[in-house]
Structures are given as structure tokens and as C-alpha cells.
Amino acid sequence: MATVDDLDRAIEKWRLATADFIRGNPRPAQESFSHRADVTLANPLGPAAPEIGPVAHGWEQVDLTQEHAASRFTDGDEVDFEIVEKYVSAELACVVLIERMKARVSANEDTSPSAVPVALRVTMTFRPEDGTWKVVHRHADSVTTAQPAESVVQR
């Protein structure tokens, strides 16, 4: 049975995986995710392919999306997590946090000339699988400060 202490270890494992991710290596993050058909990922860097859409669903889409997102980062450093809240039951755990890091970020051919600060507002849901907590959903976006109401209007 996965415990609260085990969840804390899973969160620390995720922090270390994030350090690899922002250096372009998605493997440790991929190992932290469930590989089941119901896993989801709402990534702020967009889909790996047009057919995936804004939320990757199922391990194959999540895997592709992580590969795509990690390819956008290099020279990552200084990962820090601010845990806002953590909710834990025997079947599920939810963690709300702010991830802060520095990395070079590329958008197609345009790459930041040096590492820049990156902050993400994140909600992650974990469930126990074979005695360890696995990520079954992750939503991350760049909204880490209050936004005006009109920012949600699509044009």
C-alpha cells in the first residue's frame, strides 16, 4: 500500500525528473507516469501532433507529448517546488504546486540565448500502482499570478 511518506518520495522523484526534463531528457518523468490508457497530460507547450489536441490522453499520446516538450528545453538548472497543497487518500493524491526553474527554451527555430526563469502552476494527480504512486494526470500552465478577466476570452 502506498503511503503519505511514499507520496513525498514520489514528489521528490518528480522534482529530480524535472531537472532532467529541462535538460532535454524526458525519461525520468516518463517513468513517474502511469502507462495505462486513462493517463492524461495537459502540457503548456502544446501537442506533439495536431491529432493530440490540448490534452494528451492515453500513454502513447502522453509519451509523445513529453518527448516533444522535453525537446524544447536545454541547459536547465535550479528546480524549486512550492507545494501549495497536498490531498491524500488511499486511492488518489492531488498536489497543487508552483514549479520554478531556469532553462533555455526554444520555439521551433527561435531559442532563448541563455537560460531564463520559467514558472509553472501545476496540478498533479497520483494513484498507487503496484505499491508506488504514479502520475495519472498533470496540468501545467504559465499562470502564476492573477490575470484580468478578459484573459480568458478567446478571439
What's a concise summary of this model?
The chain has 155 residues and is α+β, with helices and mostly antiparallel strands.
Polypeptide structure, described:
- It is globular and about 45 Å long.
- It is 23% helix and 40% strand.
- The model has no long low-confidence stretch (mean pLDDT 91).
- The protein has helices at 4-21, 27-32, 59-70, and strands at residues 40-42, 56-57, 73-88, 93-107, 110-111, 116-129, 132-141.
- With 155 residues, the chain is α+β, with helices and mostly antiparallel strands.
- The protein has a single domain, classed as Nuclear Transport Factor 2, Chain: A, CATH 3.10.450.50.
- Strands 1, 2, 3, 4, 5, 6 and 7 form a seven-stranded mixed beta sheet that branches.
- It is built from three helices and seven strands, in the order ααββαβββββ.
- 26% of the residues are buried.
Query: Average pLDDT across residues?
Result: 91
CATH topology: Nuclear Transport Factor 2, Chain: A
Could you estimate the helical fraction of the residues in percent?
10-25%
Q: Briefly, what CATH class?
A: Alpha Beta
Number of continuous helical runs: 3
The major sheet is characterized as: 7 strands, mixed
CATH architecture, please?
A: Roll
Number of domains: 1
Unreliable residue stretches: none
What Rg is obtained from the alpha carbons, in whole angstroms? Answer: 15 Å
The structure class reads alpha+beta
Topology:
Blueprint: H1 4-21, H2 27-32, E1 40-42, E2 56-57, H3 59-70, E3 73-88, E4 93-107, E5 110-111, E6 116-129, E7 132-141
Parallel strand pairs: 1-7
Antiparallel strand pairs: 1-2, 3-4, 4-5, 4-6, 6-7
